[in-house]
Amino acid sequence: MNDTLIHNYLLSHIPERKPFFMELEAYAAEHEVPIMEVDSMHFMLQIMQIQQPKRILEIGTAIGYSALRMADALPDVHIVTMERDEVRYDRAWHNVHTFGAEDRIEVLLMDALEDSSIVLEKENFDAIFIDAAKAQYAKFFNVYIDKLAPGGVIYSDNVLFKGLALHDSPRAQQKQRVSRKMREFNDWLLQNPDFITTTVPLGDGLAISRRKEGAK
């Protein structure tokens, strides 16, 4: 069965995004800003609409695309999102303001690891979305795990890393450190006794990790 044919078929059946979101997608493509792919975003939003989180922490704002998609799909949600690149932070703030979501999306200019105390002082979150430096996923997870509410869900994007996280292929050798880190993260995540994790092969790979009842 042709995987490309199936993928294109599924993409063609995803509802059309709002014009503003399609503008952000075009901007990201033109300026080579990594944002979540359309199919994995659509799937994640479906899961979130079932979960109905009231507070979401996003690690890696980029231009605000994911935060705005989540805010649009979840009218009652409050999102705290962090970005360390000042140019992307400015663009994200502009996009959030343009969309009129500044009362529900708090954009922070900070390093998720070096400045973590800023967020650790805030209320807990029902969901955490990790979409930042791939080699640091395990650190992000461990630093912010205590801010996840009981029964909360952690969503991790790009866990397949264009297929490079699967094995030591010649392509993976070119990005050896990151591909190895992602492979180690995936193995660790799937074996974590406090979470039930499912990895979905949509977009660049999306891991959905639900905290078990009674887990620390």
Written description of the protein model:
This protein has 216 residues and is an alpha/beta fold. The protein has a single domain (3-211), classed as Vaccinia Virus protein VP39 (Rossmann fold), CATH 3.40.50. The protein has nine helices and seven strands, in the order H-H-H-E-H-E-H-E-H-E-H-E-H-H-E-E. It has helices at residues 3-12, 19-30, 38-51, 65-73, 86-99, 117-120, 137-144, 170-174, 176-191; strands at residues 55-59, 78-83, 105-109, 125-130, 148-157, 195-200, 206-211. The model has no long low-confidence stretch (mean pLDDT 91). This is tRNA 5-hydroxyuridine methyltransferase. Mg(2+) binds at residues 131, 157-158. Keywords: Magnesium, Metal-binding, Methyltransferase, S-adenosyl-L-methionine, Transferase, tRNA processing. Catalyzes the methylation of 5-hydroxyuridine (ho5U) to form 5-methoxyuridine (mo5U) at position 34 in tRNAs.
Q: What is the typical, i.e. mean, pLDDT? A: 91
Q: What's the domain count?
A: 1
> What's the architecture, going by CATH?
3-Layer(aba) Sandwich
Overall geometry comes to globular
Reading side by side through the largest sheet, how are the strands ordered? 3-2-1-4-5-7-6
Number of strands: 7
GO biological process, one term: tRNA methylation
Binding site for Mg(2+): 131, 157-158
EC number: 2.1.1.-
InterPro entries: Cation-dep_OMT, SAM-dependent_MTases_sf, SAM_O-MeTrfase, TrmR_methyltr
